[in-house]
Amino acid sequence: MPVWIDPDKCNGCNSSRQPPCLRMCPGDLIVKDHSVNKAYLKYPEDCWDCLPCVKVCPEEAIEFHLSYQFGSRGAKLAPHIHKDRDFITWEAEDIRGKKETFTIRTKVMKIALDEKVEDSEQGLDFSI
Amino acid sequence: MIERQTIETDILIIGGGTAGCMAAVEAKERFPEYKVTILEKAHIDRSGCLAGGMNAINAYLNKGETPESFVRYVRSDSCGLIREDLVKSMSELFEYCVKKVEKWGLPILSDENGEYVPRGRWNIKINGESLKPILSKAARSAGAKVYNWITVTNLLTEGDRVTGAVGFSLRNGKFYVVHAKAVLIATGGAAGLYRPNNAGDASHKTWYSPYNTGAGYAMGIRAGAEMTSYEMRYVALRTKDAIAPTGTIALGAGAPQVNSKGERFMVSRYADIGGDGAPTPYRAHGPIQEIKEGRGPVYLDTRGISPEKVADLKKAYLDMYPSQVLYWLANDIDPGAEPVEVQTTEPYIVGGHCQAGYWVDVDRRTTLKGLYAAGDVAGGAPFKFVSGCWAEGVLAARSMGEDLKTLDRVIVSDAQIDAEVRHAFRPFENHGTIRHGIKSAELESRLQKIMEQYAGGASTYYEMNEQMLAIARKKLAILPQEAESLVAEDLHQLMKAHEVIDRIDVAQVLVEHMAYRKETRWPTYHTRTDYPERDDVNWLKFVNSVRDRRSGKIELTTRPYEQIVPGDRYKA
User: Fold this and answer.
1) Residues A83 and A97 in one domain
2) How many distinct structural domains can be found in chain B?
């Protein structure tokens, strides 16, 4: 599974109908289960590993995993967006536990927790 | 009953990606009186090729370079055959576009004099993690109206005039009917025609965006637009498994390609055409021959690069392809201590790296009145990458703006729109009403199996001949009929059904193009074992096609090559 949404950390972006992870997935692969108020990756086999969902989650609830066929679990790569939104620090850990960090310049846009869909009544939901 | 939403606009842009966003800005800035509407398949902030970010602009005229030197380079890199008028006109706008995006907030590496730092002859380094949201914000701020999550299923036409487009919303299930005076296709190219490198939960771990499924090509094919050069497929040389770009290593760390014996095979076997700097098709063809002849695996030799260079490499990947870094972490790989294995991808149809796409004039008008093309769907101009797609967006926006003075709103018949509703929602209607309906994933594997085994897939080292292509043609011919039994339970599946419908139309045209060009000009992209040599006497020309709207027959034709920039076509 390429990305994994930690149900203990995901708060469904409160009452959001269209949380950021769901909106920023270019493949329309993430859905929100409104009955438990949590988002999950519904179609893992269609994931491109492009990671906007990971970077956009305000709770840092989305973990970046490698499909198991490519290598062992236990390695870690997690982005942390700086408060000024001009830098990302990536926290890396290899399978032997060696840690490194990389800070890169960027321009991370702010994103609202919800967004109305054009021509829609809020509440219409075809995604689950 | 499907609810319909009707939109009236002057300019309709299908696809809010690299080309589409830039076209929207240019159109609103130059022609503020015109209404500009974007239909976007995903959410415009993170859609298409740039969703994950980008760490370089790979088509830029660095100091000392000119549009002419660029044309000479692209011409030799594309084995002597390109639309020089198109390549020249886009290169004249690289600076205009890049400076614009820098102003919108894109960090570009500059020296103390404010000059961009070159990463290679045509490359500059950017911190483009957020390139896509930067572009989408500019498009919206300029005043373009964006509709997200619309899967466009067809163009609206009246004779040879394109009058708009139709599609459905993934979110509210409505059918959108957009009437436009001018329509720009900027959907991107086609992935998923061939079986991908990886299976299971990594089947979308592809070079090209797996969500670019040839919709823009397919709607043009169905509308009878003239297409060019589909046979120049693109096969990318990428890192093994992670499918990350090799240019980051080759250009960033200066690492040469070696085979399992440590031999710099590009230098020893391809010296006459430039060795490590051989035309791009040969840089994929070379390693494939090594593997085919038992001298694989093939590597980029990064051994001995400094720890600082290794850290730089990782940072560059984190800007656009973080999974390469996670791959190294998960496999205990230090690229400074062991070489990075490379592989080739499945073939894609993409006019931004190669030149498959709409046959356009220098102003990016297609052969259908009112229809324009920019970016990966526009043919004849390879080596576009990001900046060339921007440039084409600008060129198309300018010509649409001028043409709008004489383009009227054309009324489309209700019967046409009713038929389009049926076409768009048929898989939905099929669900529960037909027995043994076909799922999109099933039809996709059927298509990919045919293409993989008979139309030059990776398992046959991308090779093909007349007999193989005849089998592919016959097997593909059944699929449009099969597609009528596609079933979809929800809107997401409905989108997936249309992705397969589109790819079948593209695959059929692709096979006809590959069969028609009886030479091997671009090894691996189009290796004809029955015509293994390049043939400038008979084939220094473009292979074009039009699918007849009534009979559905794909008619092939050729168009002449025109040399604009003098000089040896095989020298940069």
Assistant:
1) yes
2) 2
